[in-house]
Every structure is written in C-alpha cells, then in structure tokens.
Design goal:
single chain, 353 residues, mainly beta, four-stranded antiparallel β-sheet, 2 helices
Length: 353
C-alpha cells in the first residue's frame, strides 16, 4: 500500500511537471499578421499591403494604413525582412519604412541618401538596398549600406545601371541589373567586407535571383524588346534561365528560350523551379537541362504580375492597376484552383510571414 501511494504521488508530480513545462513552451502570438501571406501592391494613389492567413479564413486589406493611420504612397516596390522587422521600400518616395513584421506598427523611416530604392536584403545589423539614382544618369546607381539600429545610410557602393534584385550569401551580395528604364545585362557580385565589385555578363534584363540546392546562383534573364523606328515592338532578345558558379563567378549553364518567349517571373521551391510564359506557369526540376514543353498550370490571368510557391500551393497575382487585384491559389497536387481572394491595387509581390 505504501508503494502504491508513492507511485501515485510520483505520477501526479510528473504530470504537473510535464504540464508546467508544456505551458512554458506555449508561445504567445507575435501579432495579428503572423502565420500568413503578406501581399504588396504598388498602388494607385498609395501602395498597400494585404494579409491572408495560411488557412484562408482571415483576410485584411491595407494593414499598414489601419495600424498606423497613414499612407505609404506610390510606388511600393518591395519588402525585405529580418527576424523582427519588415522594411517597406517605396521607390517614388525615396523611403524605406520600418515596421514590426507581425504587428505592422511603424518603428521608423529611412529617408536620407536614398534615390529610387528598389530592393533590399538584410545581413546582420546592416541592410543593403539597390538604388537607381537619377534615371537620366546611367553612372550614379548604387547599393546603399544601411545601419538598421540608427536607420541611416552609412555608405554607398557604386554599381552599374539599373540595379534590381539583391540577395546575400557567404559575405557577398549578388545584384541583378535590368537597367532601370533602359536595359542591362549584368549581375554584380559585391564583397561586403572590401566593397570590391565583379560583373558577370548574362542575357538581357536579369531580374529574379535565387540559390539552388547545389549552391548555384540561378538568374532569370527576361530578354529585351526590339523596336523599329516608330517604337513598335518587332521582336525580343533571347531570354534565359542562367546558372552561375559563384566560386568562379562564371556561367556554368543556361537554358535559352525560343524566339519571342519571354518569362517575367521565376520562383524556386524544394527541388523545383517555376516560371511563367504569359498566363501559363511551367515547372521543372532544378537539375533539368532542357525547358519543359507543356505548362504546369494555365492561370488565364489577364496580367500575371506576381507568383509564390510553398509546400502545398501555387499563388499567382492577377493585377489590376485601377481596382483591387486578385490572388488565385492553386493546389500543387491537383493543379486545381482552390481559392480566389482580393489583393491590393497593382499587386506584385507575395511574402510568407
């Protein structure tokens, strides 16, 4: 009987201990906008951000305006993130607005020493933002180095015309150059410590940049329009998906698209790449050496302007520039459209939060 009582007491204590430990592990919600999609729109009168929960049960429009009672203005180009914050880049206003990424409460604004900022990446306590500079001057473009504690630009790294996307890996920055309102065909590699820059020539209008599972830098080169004397489009330079060996800073392989096939979006997820041709989405393995001949999904979008992929879904933005855009969700397993939701005016980017 004494042994039974002892065992019973030990069992009760163990249950209490485990229960207390489990309570300690329960995390409080970080804010209203975690566990969902953030969708940015360039805007009509003002850029905006919408929220969609991952289970699609909760949607909320213009979350920055609702939380802060102010507008971001046009054009909201992109958003960068660190563990706590979101950095909202509005190029026409020469600003990067800092908010808590989960509550969207404004923390500050970076305003000085930016000139048409486009994209940003965070490395430690520094941000690096691409800037077009004056669009009438092809020689004043730069990457701004930003102190994320003081929200000030502490340096500028000169780069070629029209720097666009920027990503970081192993102490280096990788920048695609679409050429602003003209064209370009380079990827810049910047050593963060020394600020030394190397340029790699690729096909025209490189845009999206990703690292694949083998460590290659994958670049979508959209190709460029060819015009006649009256500015009518009469053709395009070749588009390509290019892989760069970042040890040698050399092209290791490329898949060139046929004439007048010019993708504008590229995403990487798991072992696969996804890109568009018009309203159609194509899927291929990261290790593929030839382009697929049939589409994965035809979205029938009027203006396919943004795309993202997670483990279950393909998300595409059908943009309107005068009214709310549309977010269409496709199940990866069935390829069927599973949800249609509202998105901001001129919706262009989808982020996982």
């Amino acid at each position: 009987m004494k042994i039974s009582k002892f065992l019973l007491s030990a069992f009760i204590l163990s249950v209490i201990f485990v229960s207390c430990n489990n309570d300690d592990e329960i995390q409080e919600p970080k804010g209203d906008y975690e566990n969902g999609l953030l969708i940015s729109g360039e805007g009509g009168a003002s850029g905006s951000v919408y929220y969609v929960s991952y289970d699609f049960s909760t949607t909320e429009s213009q979350i920055y305006k609702k939380v802060n009672n102010s507008e971001l203005s046009v054009y909201l180009q992109s958003i960068a993130f660190d563990n706590s914050n979101a950095y909202i880049v509005v190029d026409n206003q020469n600003t990067i607005t800092v908010v808590d990424r989960y509550t969207f409460l404004k923390k500050g604004t970076i305003t000085a020493d930016l000139e048409l900022p486009r994209y940003m990446v965070v490395v430690g306590d520094k941000g690096y933002a691409t800037n077009w500079g004056s669009t009438s001057d092809a020689t004043d473009d730069f990457v701004a180095e930003i102190d994320l504690k003081s929200y000030t630009v502490t340096g500028k790294i000169p780069v070629g015309n029209g720097p666009e996307r920027i990503i970081a890996k192993n102490g280096k920055l990788y920048v695609s150059h679409k050429g602003a309102y003209t064209t370009n065909n380079i990827v810049s590699v910047i050593d963060i410590a020394s600020k030394a820059t190397t340029e790699i020539t690729v096909n025209d209008n490189p845009d999206e940049l990703f690292f694949d599972n083998a460590g290659n830098l994958v670049v979508l080169c959209e190709g460029n329009n060819i015009y006649d004397a009256s500015w009518n489009v009469i053709g395009h330079t070749p588009a390509a998906i290019t892989k760069i060996n970042t040890t040698l800073n050399e092209i290791s392989s490329e898949m060139v698209f046929a004439n007048d096939l010019n993708p504008s979006l590229l995403e990487i997820h798991g072992i696969d790449l996804y890109y568009n041709l018009g309203s159609k989405i194509y899927k291929m393995s990261q290790t593929a050496t030839t382009l697929p001949t049939s589409a994965f999904v035809d979205t029938a979008a009027g203006y396919l302007y943004g795309m993202a992929v997670d483990d279950k879904n393909l998300y595409v933005l059908d943009a309107s520039f005068t009214a709310e855009s549309t977010l269409n969700v496709y199940n990866l397993a069935t390829k069927a459209k599973s949800n249609t939701l509202k998105a901001p005016i001129a919706a262009s980017k989808i982020y996982f939060n």
